[in-house]
Amino acid sequence: MLPDRSQTQQRADLTFRGNVHSGRHGWLRLTTAYSLTLARERMAHLAPGSSVLEPFAGSGTTPLVAEEMGLHCQAREINPFLVWFTNAKLDYYSPQTRSEAQQAASQVLSQASACEKADIPFWTPPIHHIERWWDPVTLKALAALKSFINIHSGQVRNLLDVAFCRVMMGTSNVVFNHQSMSLKKLEADTDQPAFELPANTYQDVLTRFQLEFGEVVTTLAEPLRLTASVHQGDSKTPFDAFEPADMVLTSPPYCNRMSYIRELRPYMYWLGFLTSGEQASDLDWKSTGGTWGKASTRLRGWSPSISPDYQSDDSQDGTPVPTPAELEASLPIASELAAALENIEKGKSGDILAPYVHKYFLDMWQHFLMIDPVLKAGGDMCYVIGNSTFSGTEVPTHRWYAQMMEALGYTNIHIDTLRKRNSNKALYEFAVCAHKPSAA
């Protein structure tokens, strides 16, 4: 019998909205992030000094909250921009560094202002149809700011870049009225926007940079302990270099084809982490649940037995990485997954969606096999995840995670319904939690 979720609320305070006005947590908007409130609730039982492992770090909510709670946190993230961003959030900025950054910001503003009337070919990122993102005046101001920011380095550069990211996204033609980021619509058969572009003057953009930088600096007053760190890597590979953890707390990508690379590409292009669409597609293909760009095309006809690039090419000594055949043979949810895939194949875009769902759960099963050895006996894991639907077929990710945990010998497995999601009346967010028994 299915649980009654009729009274479940949307609980915006458990989403990224709960972080907006909360110091460093609010530096940038990442829609898929959960809130510091949720992280605190899930780590509240841990003793000071306990070790937390976050394998899908995202924008760093878990390690930052762990720092604030006196916990030690190790984290992994495959996206190089998010690795940079989270480590910048976790850093300590001395009074001298803050003073130097303020002087640098003033210098950047002065230099950019002096170029307002000049015809200087500042660099702009190779974003496809960049004119749909920013009007010419705004783009010129952003390019000038970034050119002079790039003169600086180290922590000063990091703070300037965070402020720039806030301005860059805040002056764009992006809307967030859906689950994912999108551009405002264009007139049919033209490249002209079907809306009034933001009336930014050149000086408006510079003033906004000054304000955003000021807000970023105010969040630095409370120093951190510098015990948390984020390492770049694929969470389908071994965690042999990580210290044993008392708890795993994370929110993996959902099984809903939402691409984190797509969501973050403006940041990644402007800061030099991406230089082409092909590079973005390759990174998305390596990511769990990624299908943006050419990654979608690669799913047609996909199966683990014919895809040598299915597994990460990051080889490590220690924990053995199973072959695709071994993953298939050991998958605890194989029969339920096969039935769901059969239904999904019959629906719209089934030739892409069925392989996508198949690959997603093999990726996650491989992840659970890799992370199990680094969680201490007696430790806990908690995965914040949502269910999905494809052509009317539910993909109960929360239940299947629980079955994977059970197959690994975990006990006290329970699924807490956290909130109703905005996108569909059948979709919810859950915390799937389990305990790793102590050694006999």
UniProtKB/TrEMBL annotation:
Residues 299-324 are annotated as: Disordered. One of its GO terms (biological process) is DNA restriction-modification system. InterPro entries: MeTrfase_CN4_CS, SAM-dependent_MTases_sf. It catalyses: a 2'-deoxycytidine in DNA + S-adenosyl-L-methionine = an N(4)-methyl-2'-deoxycytidine in DNA + S-adenosyl-L-homocysteine + H(+). Keywords: Methyltransferase, Restriction system, S-adenosyl-L-methionine, Transferase. It comes from Aeriscardovia aeriphila. GO terms for molecular function: DNA binding; site-specific DNA-methyltransferase (cytosine-N4-specific) activity. Belongs to the N(4)/N(6)-methyltransferase family. N(4) subfamily. This is site-specific DNA-methyltransferase (cytosine-N(4)-specific). Its EC number is 2.1.1.113. It is an enzyme of class 2 (transferase).
